[in-house]
Amino acid sequence: MSESDTSTGGASAADGAAEQASPGPFTDIVIALLAPGEPLRSISARAVDPETGRRIPHNQLPKLAKGEGFRRERWLIGAIAAAAGRPLVEVQSAASEEWTGLKVGDLLRASNSSTTVVVAYESGTTPDDLPILKEKLKKLGLGNIQVVEATPGDPVS
After folding, report:
1. Which segments of 19-149 are extended strands (E)?
2. What's the CA gap between 135 and 81, in Å, rounded?
3. What is the pLDDT of residue 31?
């Protein structure tokens, strides 16, 4: 089988997945990765987790785009981030939301140049709902933070 035999041929793998409702933001990243019609073997060559060296086989990419056929393992997130050229934290946030139903981000806006604060929270949570977390942040030396509610779509710092 040649590489051209495994190309998405006009993004057929992604098109098929896009016709169904997307299971969530992680699958959306995979669908976007396959959308340009690049050969699956080429995408697979980039889909290598930098931490473990594990690679996503080309024949698994269409299954990922459909949100099926894979175990939800940590290395997979790194491999998709590498293949898509996206920051790891962005793909981690997308996987967290899709796989657990929890949003992940800096809801308290407590991150600074040396510390990143990431919180998993249910949709509709406000900073006032997190008094224990605010107290713990003060103990970590982040007590002078201004707590404001993050707006939906804000990137994770």
Report:
1. 103-105, 119-121
2. 33
3. 94
